[in-house]
Task: inverse folding
């Protein structure tokens, strides 16, 4: 057996792990390519004089790959597919096989979990560790997002040792990889763009996503699969989607006869880099995509265009063939390697000099794993990272999300990507919606654009209630949905069913243009209010129901405490409130404020003073109740919700209604605009309440 070679930084990491593992569960985060496998082996060796070591890999492919490496330094054996093989000092296994074979092999002194992020939230891992409770555990991964750390197997929060590129270099002996990043625009051609804009209002988000990220050929394949579904089992919403597919399939099929916009852009990228670098300096070029259809298109297209050795690995490929391709790639016999997600973990090809991402994950972990295929020590110091993105789409706008999340996890990619700040510059998918809203405002001389102008499927509130059968069986729908004690009294399962029915009833209303408008809210280029007329309809229903409740309480033995409890309402269910959104560009904020103030001035004083919050804004000298913090508007920065409380004075007590404004990103706005936006939301809620009160009082007189 060979001696396990360790560099200075690996020895120091090993010592730190040994110092904390007495706490039974330690997790080590080290960048891919930094040699964490050698730290794992060295740690295992320190325990072998006490007993055996179990190494858990998430897949059979990784079991085989690790067994070859471990076998050079330790007496290791591999087992999976349920075949129990307790031979060797080190057993390398998948979690399922290890769990099934515990009767034949229990005496482990150490468990090493490679790619340990798989263990968090997994019942299989949890059951395995429960059976081996008390055994010391060391997990290794490139990245463990902080949101996962507190959800460890068996509820154990691990000791988390984090080493990024900078930290390893500080420990000594680590040669930091160096890369230059670039983003290439992959625009659709005019006829593709025209089709895409037409489909926005008819196709669901997941099919639009396929078109954006993977191209027309992948969309064509997805549509064909959708059309093959059993029509008898489709819901009404899915039948509408199928109808839309049938209406557009001929045009989709026609455009799918040529290479997609992503495949065309890839040709340009490769042409530029191969004219700048000799293929021997950067091979194998690694190309990642999540979609098999695009992977196959890329392989076919490049074989016809380039005189290079091109290989494709997908999850469908048998293990033996996959290993042959990887061996050839490591030996320098593959020029371009096209990979689907099966290649994101455990593939070690240090010579790779150019990594091209055809699409992006929002997940910082998945993005980091992909990046790890490039950021490994190899020949040639400088490497290249390319992202190919479709402009004016959501993909474009989300490009910086995984990198920002990595920064939040303490992983500073600027240490290894020279032009990192330029690389994560923001994009403009939301501009489509902003442009459309400005057009409508100008053509129709409006201050804001109701959501119904962006999506033609919006149901009114009564129409929505008709679609939710469970609500009608529980009593008054307004009370069930919005009254705090009534909603709180429902069983958890009933609440879950109501939420599900609301989601099913409203999901077809949210067109692609609406999604882009909501994305623009997050970028601070649009704001919204609720349609006052529509919101006042719900508030009127609440006022009417409140009076009925107060009258009933009075008949049964009135107490102010009981009235206060049942007079509490919250406009929950974001999907319902979204139906009343009216969008406006941020630069219209002062015009919007002025319009609402003018409308408020026209409300009679006797109505305004019944809204107790307003009595302070308008300095009512005889306001009956003090203004407490509880009834002031408040902002949840974490949830991006601004809540405006309404206090309405009734004969039998107070009616308190909390009106939430979701998707409010005040941190994206300048301080002055942020303060103006708060005031607009408050005025919007108050004005809607005053409209409802006027109608309520008129109805009461009748």
Result:
């Amino acid at each position: 057996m060979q001696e396990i070679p360790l560099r200075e930084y690996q020895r120091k990491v090993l010592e730190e792990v040994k110092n904390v593992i007495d706490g039974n569960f330690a997790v080590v985060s080290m960048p891919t390519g930094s040699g964490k496998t050698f730290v794992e082996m060295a740690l295992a060796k320190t325990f072998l004089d006490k007993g055996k070591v179990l190494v858990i890999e998430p897949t059979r492919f990784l079991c085989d790959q690790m067994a070859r490496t471990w076998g050079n330094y330790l007496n290791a054996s591999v087992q999976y597919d349920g075949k129990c093989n307790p031979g060797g000092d080190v057993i390398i296994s998948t979690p399922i096989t290890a769990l099934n074979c515990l009767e034949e092999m229990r005496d482990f002194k150490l468990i090493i979990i490679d790619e340990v992020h798989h263990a968090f939230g997994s019942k299989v891992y949890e059951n395995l560790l429960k059976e081996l409770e008390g055994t010391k555990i060391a997990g290794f991964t490139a990245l463990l997002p902080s949101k996962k750390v507190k959800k460890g197997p068996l509820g154990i929060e691990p000791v988390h040792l984090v080493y990024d590129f900078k930290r390893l270099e500080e420990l000594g002996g680590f040669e930091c990889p160096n890369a230059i990043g670039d983003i290439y625009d992959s625009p659709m051609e005019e006829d593709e763009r025209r089709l895409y804009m037409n489909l926005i209002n008819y196709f669901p988000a997941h099919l639009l996503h396929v078109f954006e990220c993977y191209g027309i050929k992948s969309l064509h394949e997805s549509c064909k699969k959708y059309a093959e579904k059993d029509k008898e089992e489709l819901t009404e919403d899915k039948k509408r989607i199928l109808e839309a597919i049938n209406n557009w399939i001929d045009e989709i099929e026609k455009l799918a006869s040529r290479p997609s916009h992503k495949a065309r852009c890839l040709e340009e990228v490769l042409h530029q880099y191969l004219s700048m670098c000799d293929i021997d300096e950067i091979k194998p070029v690694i190309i990642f995509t999540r979609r098999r259809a695009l992977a196959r298109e890329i392989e076919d297209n490049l074989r016809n265009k380039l005189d290079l050795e091109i290989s494709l690995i997908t999850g469908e490929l048998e293990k033996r063939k996959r290993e042959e391709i990887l061996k050839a790639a490591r030996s320098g016999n593959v020029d371009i390697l096209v990979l689907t997600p099966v290649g994101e973990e455990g593939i070690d090809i240090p010579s790779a000099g150019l990594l091209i991402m055809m699409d992006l994950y929002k997940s910082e972990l998945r993005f980091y794993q992909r990046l790890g295929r490039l950021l490994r020590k190899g020949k040639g110091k400088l490497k290249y990272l390319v992202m190919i993105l479709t402009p004016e789409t959501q993909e474009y706008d989300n490009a910086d999300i995984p990198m920002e999340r990595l920064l939040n996890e303490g992983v500073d990619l600027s240490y290894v990507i020279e032009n990192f700040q330029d690389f994560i510059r923001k994009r403009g998918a939301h501009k489509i919606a902003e442009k459309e809203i400005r057009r409508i405002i100008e053509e129709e001389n409006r201050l804001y654009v109701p959501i119904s102008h962006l999506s033609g499927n919006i149901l009114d509130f009564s129409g929505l209630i008709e679609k939710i059968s469970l609500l009608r069986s529980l009593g008054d729908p307004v009370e069930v949905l919005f009254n705090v004690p009534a909603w709180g009294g429902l069983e958890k399962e009933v609440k879950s069913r109501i939420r599900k029915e609301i989601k099913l009833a409203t999901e077809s209303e949210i067109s692609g243009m609406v999604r882009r408008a909501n994305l623009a809210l997050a970028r601070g280029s649009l704001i919204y209010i609720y349609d006052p007329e529509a919101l006042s309809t719900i508030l009127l229903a609440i006022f009417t129901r409140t009076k009925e409740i107060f009258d009933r309480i009075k008949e049964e033995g009135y107490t102010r405490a009981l009235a206060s409890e049942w007079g509490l309402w919250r406009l929950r269910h974001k999907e319902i409130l979204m139906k009343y959104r009216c969008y406006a560009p941020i630069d219209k904020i002062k015009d919007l404020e002025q319009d609402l103030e003018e409308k408020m001035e026209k409300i009679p004083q006797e109505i305004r003073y019944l809204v107790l919050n307003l009595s302070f804004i308008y300095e009512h000298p005889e306001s009956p109740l003090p203004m407490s913090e509880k009834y002031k508007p408040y902002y949840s920065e974490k949830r991006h919700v601004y809540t405006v409380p309404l206090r309405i004075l009734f004969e039998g007590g107070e009616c308190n209604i909390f009106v939430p404004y979701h998707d409010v990103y005040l941190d994206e706005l300048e301080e002055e605009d942020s303060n103006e936006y708060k005031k607009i939301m408050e005025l919007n809620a108050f004005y809607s309440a005053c409209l409802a009160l006027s109608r309520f009082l008129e109805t009461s007189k009748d």
